[in-house]
Automatic annotation (TrEMBL):
Keywords: GTP-binding, Nucleotide-binding. It comes from Blepharisma stoltei. It comes from the Eukaryota. This is Uncharacterized protein. One of its GO terms (molecular function) is GTP binding. The keyword Nucleotide-binding applies.
Amino acid sequence: MVWEYAATDRCKSIKRTYIKETNGIMFVYDITNRDTFRYIYYWLREAKENIDRDFLAILIGNKCDLESERKVLYSEGQALGEELGLPFFEISALDETNVENAFSFLIEKNFELLSKFK
């Protein structure tokens, strides 16, 4: 199941309820909006505070189809991924660039992690 929460969502208690059961997280920012990039720290902190077990996460820069409107460099996304210990992908949800790769990576790694607990 996939849940999407915007940085401006007000239903924090609902988010915390669902995030506790999370096995994999995609922290997604918009490459044309630097504020969404800065908000990744908030979401990672929320996840760590509310999930009491190991979980997988990846960092995704979305809208790579809008290169002319880019505000967050690819290298900045890559550096943030390294800083946070998160695999990094740039995707375009609009034209599906790299979307399958990002989902497949998270799913495969999640199966590997879950198989360790069996």
